[in-house]
Write a structure and sequence with these properties.
With about 140 residues, the protein is α+β, with helices and mostly antiparallel strands. It has 4 helices and 6 strands. It has helices at about 15-25, 75-85, 100-105, 115-125; strands at about 5-10, 35-40, 45-55, 60-65, 90-95, 135.
Length: about 140
């Protein structure tokens, strides 16, 4: 796809991401305290989004989504490369089958002792409902 560009939404633009998620059948609600990265097509339509929620001195990647009609074109990777270009510690809770994707971007499975409570506590809560792998992007800080 030509004409695709990556952007950070401003806090007042957060509802645009929420509308994108809803159009894709997701219940995600973007919040104004989050950093929200998007890919837009040549017409300015959001075709991918990722939410970064503040967690202490780090960020937690949430809700990486690519529009159904655009999947399979490397857009998740393109958006994540944009996100990872920013200097910040970044964590994510990955479903096991997505771990190779995140590892290919430089995420690693951290030593449990090195996981801050602001990340470990919500991770434990999520793991009660589904199996997840915690990952960290060490090159981002």
């Amino acid at each position: 796809m030509n004409g695709i560009s990556a952007h950070w939404l401003s806090p007042v633009q957060a509802p645009l991401a929420s509308r994108f998620y809803a159009a894709e059948g997701q219940k995600e609600r973007a919040r104004r305290d989050e950093r929200i990265a998007v890919l837009r097509d040549a017409d300015g339509t959001i075709i991918a989004a990722a939410r970064l929620s503040p967690r202490g001195d780090a960020w937690l990647l949430r809700a990486l989504q690519v529009a159904r009609h655009c999947q399979g074109q490397g857009l998740a990777r393109q958006l994540m490369q944009f996100v990872l270009s920013q200097p910040q510690p970044l964590w994510c809770f990955s479903l096991p089958h997505l771990q190779p994707f995140y590892r290919s971007l430089g995420f690693v499975v951290p030593d449990a002792a090195g996981v801050p409570a602001a990340i470990a506590d919500p991770f434990a809560a999520y793991c009660r409902t589904q199996p997840l792998v915690i990952l960290y992007a060490p090159g981002a800080d």
